[in-house]
């Protein structure tokens, strides 16, 4: 039954998700002013760090939310998990020869390991890895941005989801590091499309606006072991397992160990302040607040997710 779980005594009891989310929001409020919005993308710098939203979607589509959960924000690196899933779903298994799956221990935009590691990025969630994934998705579909937008619209049922062109242009105008990463990998033969096309599609999928509800619903396929909202299969059970594993170890960059310790779930953050976390077999939770810590992860979203997993049985551990 909806919202029900079995207690230790074996009785079915209703879980009050709304109350759990309200408690998580209360836990996050006092720390919101400790974070700073990303300012290396000027269009994101003016976001209000006091905004907070959180939504939960169960595997069978029950949705709950609190705070600014219906307020669209820039999904940024959260788009990287959808790009990876779509590339694999289009038969991109050879992708794993072009990108590894080890935590980098370095910031998300670091260049340093690429030179000694022959242009093979450490994992698909740092910027270098996501550029390779975007290149593969572009080769497989002809439209990497469009593939991510269509998927988010279909899974969330929200046709308004789209790229925010002002954010994409702001990123492109200040995207010297991403351009450097892309050209450097191209010099090793690890990009197959023209560098400018890969960058355009990468900036455009990072600049998609969506809200906590949209993302919690769109993350459902990883909680359903590869099945989409309509019951069709996007990924094999094995690929869903592997993406969740790489999210746990690499989804929050050089803070992935701390995220696993505090939250204990596969999760992906973005510099727009969103964090999407997956609970295999149960559902997905998305929290958002624009203030970031030094690693580029939302201070408020992390505090809320930590409180949520401490107080509920939504955990993989
Ligand atoms: O390429 C960038 O820097 C941004 N489009 C995405 C970075 C990001 O979201 C890192 N996540 N915390």
List keywords for this structure.
binds 6-diazenyl-5-OXO-L-norleucine, 42% helix, single chain, 317 residues, glutaminase activity, alpha+beta, five-stranded antiparallel sheet, acetylation, 12% strand, Beta-lactamase, 13 helices, EC 3.5.1.2, Glutaminase
Topology, please?
Layout lengths: L3 E3 L5 E3 L2 H12 L24 E6 L4 E5 L5 E2 L4 H11 L22 H5 L10 H15 L2 H13 L5 E2 L1 H9 L2 H12 L7 H12 L1 E3 L1 H7 L1 H4 L13 H14 L5 H7 L4 E3 L4 E6 L3 E6 L10 H13 L6
Antiparallel strand pairs: 1-2, 3-4, 3-10, 5-7, 6-7, 8-9, 9-10
Bound molecules: 6-diazenyl-5-OXO-L-norleucine.
Task: Describe the overall structure.
By secondary structure, the chain is an alpha+beta fold. It has one domain (16-311): Beta-lactamase (3-Layer(aba) Sandwich). Helix content is 42%, strand content 12%. The chain is built from 13 helices and 10 strands. It has helices spanning 17-28, 79-89, 112-116, 127-141, 144-156, 165-173, 176-187, 195-206, 212-218, 220-223, 237-250, 256-262, 299-311, and strands at 4-6, 12-14, 53-58, 63-67, 73-74, 162-163, 208-210, 267-269, 274-279, 283-288. It has a 5-stranded antiparallel β-sheet, with helices on both faces. It has a 3-stranded antiparallel β-sheet with strand order 5-7-6. Helix 4 (127-141) crosses helix 8, helix 6 (165-173) packs across helix 8 (195-206) and helix 7 crosses helix 8 (195-206). The chain is globular. 6-diazenyl-5-OXO-L-norleucine (DON) binds at residues 76-77, 108-109, 127, 171, 178, 206, 269-271, 296-297.
């Amino acid at each position: 039954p909806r919202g029900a779980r079995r207690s230790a005594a074996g009785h079915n009891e209703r879980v009050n998700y709304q109350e759990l989310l309200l408690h998580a929001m209360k836990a996050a409020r006092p720390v919101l002013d400790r974070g700073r919005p990303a300012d290396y993308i000027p269009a994101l710098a003016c976001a209000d760090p006091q905004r907070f939203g959180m939504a939960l979607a169960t595997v069978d589509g029950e949705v709950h939310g609190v705070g600014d959960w219906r307020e669209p924000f820039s999904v940024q690196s959260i788009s990287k998990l959808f790009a990876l899933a779509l590339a694999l779903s289009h038969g991109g298994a050879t992708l794993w020869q072009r990108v590894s799956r080890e935590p980098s221990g370095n910031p998300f935009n670091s260049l340093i390991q690429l030179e000694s590691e022959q242009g093979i990025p450490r994992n698909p969630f740092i910027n270098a890895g996501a550029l390779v994934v975007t290149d593969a998705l572009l080769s497989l579909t002809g439209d990497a941005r469009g593939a991510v937008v269509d998927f988010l619209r279909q899974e969330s049922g929200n046709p308004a989801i789209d790229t925010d062109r002002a954010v994409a242009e702001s990123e492109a105008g200040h995207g010297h590091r991403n351009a450097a990463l892309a050209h450097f990998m191209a010099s090793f033969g690890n990009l197959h499309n023209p560098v400018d096309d890969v960058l355009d599609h990468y900036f455009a999928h990072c600049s998609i606006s969506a809200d906590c509800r949209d993302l919690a619903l769109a993350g459902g396929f990883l909680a359903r072991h590869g099945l989409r909202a309509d019951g069709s299969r996007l990924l094999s059970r094995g690929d869903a397992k592997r993406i969740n594993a790489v999210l746990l170890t690499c989804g929050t960059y050089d803070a992935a160990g701390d995220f696993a310790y505090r939250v204990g779930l596969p999760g992906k953050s973005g510099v727009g302040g969103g964090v999407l976390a997956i609970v295999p077999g149960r559902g997905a939770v998305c929290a958002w607040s624009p203030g970031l810590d030094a690693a580029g992860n939302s201070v408020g979203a992390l505090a809320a997710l930590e409180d949520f997993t401490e107080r509920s049985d939504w955990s993989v551990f």
